[in-house]
Amino acid sequence: MNILKFITAGSVDDGKSTLIGRLLFDSKAVSHDILHTLEKQSRNKNAGDLDLSLLTDGLRAEREQGITIDVAYKYFNTSKRKFIIADAPGHVQYTRNMVTGASNADLAIILVDARQGIVEQTHRHSLIAALMGIPHILVAVNKMDLVGYDEQVFYKIALDYQKLAQKLGLQEVKIIPISAVVGDNVVNKSKNTPWYTGETLLQHLETVEISHDLPEDQARFQVQYVIRPGHDDYHDYRGYAGALRSGFFKKGDRVRVLPSGIETTLKAIEVHQKEVDEAFAPQPVVLHLADDIDVSRGDSLIRVEDAQPVVSQDIELEICWMSERPLKVGDRYLLRHNAAHTKAVVKEIHHRVDVHSFEPHAIDAIQLNDIARIKLRTARPLVFDAYRQNRASGGLILINETTFDTVAAGMLRELPREEPATTEFDI
Q1: pTM to 2 decimal places
Q2: 183 lies in which domain range?
């Protein structure tokens, strides 16, 4: 049974937590003890019916304030598929939380309040989904019960979102009218929307085609730890441990160590302390090389015959800025690219992306929650692929050198520029 990892996002009070609660409740994924607690908490809030949003509100302080302020993860399964859900907060100041939840998502559910239509956060979250390379978008037009299940309201929102998606190059978009509170078209088909003949939200989640296959022609391995036991039983043992992030390795492969460029042969592969003839992403492995060469933490091993990554100290990337302190040209940060760490300086700020028009705007500094394109110069060469080509090796984070806070998530840019993808819509 495969696993679908998806994130929910939307503006404040669009009903994200209620939607997840409805999914869990109607798919019978709520245990009796949790249901009993839910009934008690709903009575305490004088909510009348069950307050399904409580199933995802993880902190008591959140409930007292009536808002959800972090990314809540939930797990459930049906007879067809397992699911991992990330519920991202809707407030603008928590946009960075969506970036966290979206980094490994296969699908994004973007909620739109039927009364409000497309708003700024719809634009912002859709832009982030596009930048993060989420392959499937499901637009849930929620609170249809509050607009009398008006067909024209739904189709206007669908048309507006199609225009937005085409600007962003979102490739696969599904749009569904729902009411999370009532349960319309979430798990069960609604009689209130006879004009909608498509799938329910859960049916789409269960059947959407996903692929966890990483690029097979891009074997990417970064050394996380050099294993040298240091005692006589393993006197000559030297292994390089880490996760195979994409592609595969076979015993006897000719490999190149980057950034040095030295070539050698793969003498042995260990998985779970047993030698194997080949290994595939995303397995954790220990690799052994035929030659005694200098390989350190953060170095990359690449199959010589595979498509080669970029090796450079000058990098361009899109970032989502997560710090209240602005980013300016000349600022210095620690850069973490999987297991590789280096220092970096901001050389250029190309532009900020306007979340309304998606047009670039020249700026001198990047503010909290801005999405922008910048150029960095790193202290040592970085080994990477463009994010749109390989998410496993195309992402990085920037860290404040003093506080060690994560201040930005970055997506390395493709070389050369790709043509916009054709958007496919399903309503």
Answers
A1: 0.79
A2: 3-207
